[in-house]
Design a protein that fits this description.
Layout: E1 2-6, E2 9-13, E3 30-33, E4 43-44, H1 50-53, H2 73-81, E5 85-88, H3 94-99, E6 108-113, H4 117-129, E7 134-140, H5 144-155, E8 168-171, E9 182-185, H6 201-222, E10 228-231, H7 236-247, E11 265-267, H8 270-283, H9 290-293, E12 295-297, E13 305-307, H10 315-326, H11 328-334, H12 341-356, E14 361-367, E15 370-379, E16 382-385, H13 392-408
Parallel strand pairs: 2-3, 3-5, 6-7, 6-9, 7-8, 9-10, 10-11
Antiparallel strand pairs: 1-2, 4-5, 12-13, 14-15, 15-16
Length: about 400
Amino acid sequence: MYYYDHRGRLAASPLPDLPLPRAEAGVPALFLTAEDPARGRTVWRPTAPHHLTAPASAAWLDRTAGAGIALPGHVRAALDAGTLTAVNVRHPRWEAALDRLAPKPGKKRVHLLAVGDVGGTLLTALKLLGGDCISAVGICDLNENAVARWTAEMGQIAWPWDYGALPEVEPVTADRLFDCDVFLFAATKAIPPVGSAVADVRMAQFAANRPLVESFARQARAARFRGLFIVLSDPVDPLCKAAYLASNTGPDGRWDGGGLFAEQVQGFGLGVMNARAAYFARQAPRFADFLSEGRSFGPHGHGLVIANSVEHYNDEMSRALTEQVETANLRIRDLGFKPYVAPAVSSGAMQLLLTLRGQWRCASLCLGDVWFGARSRLTAQGTETECLPLPLALRARLEETEALLKTII
């Protein structure tokens, strides 16, 4: 192991020839790796040895995957203490990615594109619940009347005699969309109508929504956006990857790393799947373990993995619960309604508030070649993805989902 000084912070690395001043061995603050810069995050918080030694994949969710990997004592001490930040120095802008981790004090400004069914419901929840961490929500939509309507409606929501307690809601023009800390992409170009014969509504939206999210990702690149680019539109996980790739494609059509860092692009679709699993677990005693021991993984749609319990995993029961959750939206459509209320609140508003508060949330993050939903949180050392000892059967399901997601984009 080699030790370097990076702007006064001790860095450890297996790389012997980095262009940094050498330093004496000690407990490092940074661990410098060298992986394919187009795959995976540039900066992250590792919690298991294989987060430092193996390329990002679904295996990062399984603590047993790192069993037997030996680390030098100083590095292991930093890993166990939770004070280590891993950095991929092959990314051409890795120092800028590291600078992003410096916390910005105060409440955050959020911009929301668009205020349709999902956006309007999300906006209402953020207005009511976000006063502690959101200063203002700027809204943008092609329909100027919709923007005027929601600005007025939200402006008329206030606690009596405490008129500054809730975030302000104001219109934002398209050229100012990225003058914010968080950009929420809730725009959609095509939603199959209720009663249509489309088997997988989410995937039917991909072809229509992909050019849309790519356009705004390129706009984020041009604006040198440093905040979070959050995708709410379906299908969340493939659209995250599409946004990342488009943002980092240069004029010559090649990946150049000049756009959004992978860790900036996050998907909010898993929250409602987790909430739906809890809903069914409260109704059926056989699923009750989920309420205290369960987890949700993967995409908002086909490939979802619900685990009834991590410690006492039952594959048959977990697959049965997964099936109920994955088809729950169809039951709302059968009633003649679009299933957007729970997703807007459980996946959108609640996960954003947890994110801004630095708490555990359900979100899709980059794991190598895919964006993959799991429990995670933002920390001063980078984004941390929960890593638990997983049963072999559950690990196999996660790898199946990873392979499925790789076929989409």
